[in-house]
Design brief:
Blueprint (H helix, E strand, L loop, with lengths): L1 H4 L11 E4 L2 E5 L3 E3 L4 E3 L2 H10 L6 E7 L2 E9 L4 H16 L4 H6 L8 E4 L2 H5 L3 H9 L1 E4 H104 L4 H74 L5 H53 L8 E6 L4 H11 L4 H17 L6 E6 L2 E6 L4 H10 L1 H17 L6 E6 L4 E2 L2 H19 L1
Antiparallel strand pairs: 1-8, 2-6, 2-7, 3-4, 5-6, 9-12, 10-11, 12-13
Protein name: Factor of dna methylation 4
Pfam families: XH, XS
Organism: Nicotiana attenuata
């Protein structure tokens, strides 16, 4: 509408003074004497008449003096060029019917006809109720002065926007710098992790090599000792045979030979034990590798056995109570002592598992706190990015007024935006109301959860009056609030707009790094 009314000021004298904000004067309003003063109709009726004729006034103010209603009214228009166009349109309408200012001043018989014109300098400077009201509520300005003032405001606005853009650019550079630092820090941590893994693997390989070398050395020594003992055995057998053949073996020689044979047998037994030790050492080397690999699985198994231990302890306690009620026999007492000893061992084992479980819980909580801090830092860093990027920050539970405008424009011809703003404001208040809880508990495969109560009266009234789209908009915000915050407030969340779900920290960092790469490529 502004484009159609804009040329209204171009056909007028730019130096002529008008009352600003734009005002018109309607004269010869019907009044009557009620015995005390003159009275007339309120300004709302005249405003409705002028609105129906297409003059679009903001308000109509009847003028009163000490005698009552003066028969004049001031019509106020909006203080933009549309308002000026409507004021000129009103003046020309009255002039076309020969009821302008000149006709009013020059006519002696005005009958019951209304007269109207645009308020200008002579009206502003006049005495009486018209001049008093205009001087109190307006100023004299020419079209050129108003155009110059608009130009100054536009220049100031452009300057402020330029400063804002520059500040946003500086902030973007700061975020890019921070992301670069974070990326470098992550790269450094990953490099240190790779170095630690490499050192650990090298240490394991060294241990395995030393074990193999030691085992090979022991096997070689064993073979050497075995060969030496075999040669000694053959030599002794040969000597024994010679002594038998000669039949000249005396007691001392027999005793010496017997002693040497016993020593040889002991040496062979020692060699056998050494062989068993070598095999046992090889087996231990193999088990050591398996132990290093299965250590974490063993800890997890211990944690899983906690519940089994607790059940076993309860069973043993029950068995103890049963045995105590069975009497004081010797067998019963012995059985009771065995159960109590087993119970004590199980309780000690449970205490160890409790300590281990507590340590793991503390580590898990610390890791969760670190992840939450990293997620919060990532959200704070991405708040300046577009909310419709692939990965961005979403205000969970916030109503989108643009969606309400789309709904109201289909239902209302006039004031659709105003109705959308009013509807959005009302439902934002409902969402923050802690006494309103439109949820029900439903059972799913993952356990019980809260869902929208489809029998809620307030939500059903919204669906009936504004349709399914408005109902979906509000229920989505309700679910987001209920999931993200226990206080039913709006929270910020890292969001994957492509998959319509919460984004992971990895997705957020990958997206920022990709954006930085694209930005650097464009700069080159």
């Amino acid at each position: 509408m502004e484009t159609e009314l804009q040329p209204a000021h171009q056909g007028n004298d730019v130096d002529e003074k008008y009352v600003f904000p734009w005002m018109g004067i309607v004269a010869n309003l019907p009044i009557e004497w009620d015995g005390k003063r003159y009275v007339g109709k309120s300004g709302s009726g005249l405003r409705d008449d002028l609105t129906n004729k297409g003059f679009n006034p903001v308000r109509v103010h009847p003028l009163w003096n000490h005698r009552g209603h003066s028969g004049y009214a001031v019509v106020e228009f909006s203080n933009n060029w549309d308002g000026f166009a409507y004021a000129i349109k009103l003046e020309k309408s009255f002039e076309s019917q020969h009821r302008g200012k000149l006709e009013y001043l020059g006519s002696a018989n005005r009958e019951n006809k209304l007269y109207g014109w645009v308020a200008k300098a002579d009206d502003f400077k006049s005495s009486g109720v018209i001049g008093d009201y205009l001087r109190k509520n307006g100023d004299l300005k020419s079209i050129s002065e108003i155009q110059a003032e608009d130009k100054r405001k536009n220049d100031a606005l452009v300057s402020n926007l330029a400063e804002t853009i520059e500040a946003k650019s500086r902030r973007l550079k700061e975020i890019e710098s921070k992301c670069n630092e974070t990326s470098m820090c992550l790269s450094k941590v990953m490099m240190q992790r790779d170095e630690m893994i490499q050192e650990y693997n090298e240490e394991l390989q060294g241990m395995a090599k030393n074990a193999r070398d030691q085992l090979a050395k022991m096997i070689k020594e064993r073979e050497k000792n075995k060969s030496y003992l075999e040669a000694q055995r053959k030599e002794l057998e040969l000597r024994e045979k010679e002594l038998v053949e000669r039949e000249a073996l005396n007691d001392n020689q027999r005793q010496e030979l017997h002693s040497l044979k016993q020593m040889n047998e002991r040496a062979e037994m020692e060699q056998k034990r050494m062989d068993e030790s070598v095999l046992k050492l090889a087996e231990e080397q193999k088990k050591e590798k398996e132990t290093l690999r299965d250590k974490i699985l063993e800890l997890q198994t211990k944690l899983d056995s906690k519940q089994a231990l607790e059940l076993e302890i309860e069973r043993l306690k029950g068995a103890t109570q049963v045995m105590r009620h069975m009497g004081d026999g010797q067998d019963v007492k012995k059985k009771l002592d065995e159960i109590q000893e087993s119970l004590k061992e199980k309780e000690e084992e449970l205490e160890d598992l409790e300590a281990l479980n507590q340590a793991l819980v503390v580590k898990e909580r610390r890791a969760n706190v670190e992840l939450q801090d990293a997620r919060k830092e990532l959200i704070d860093g991405m708040k300046q990015h577009s909310s419709r990027a692939l990965i961005g920050v979403k205000r969970m539970g916030e109503l989108d007024i643009k969606r309400f405008q789309e709904i109201t424009k289909k239902m209302f011809v006039e004031d659709a935006d105003l109705k959308a703003a009013e509807l959005c404001s009302i439902w934002e208040a409902h969402l923050r109301d802690p006494k309103w809880h439109p949820f029900k508990v439903v059972t799913t495969e993952n356990g019980p959860k809260e869902d929208i109560d489809d029998k809620d009266e307030r939500l059903n009234r919204l669906k009936h009056e504004y349709g399914e789209a408005a109902y979906e908009l509000v229920t989505t915000a309700l679910l987001e609030m209920n999931e993200s915050s226990s206080s039913r407030g709006i929270t910020t969340e890292l969001w994957n707009y492509k998959l319509e779900r919460k984004a992971t920290i990895k997705e957020g960092i990958s997206y920022i790094v990709q954006k930085l790469k694209v930005s650097k490529a464009k700069k080159r």
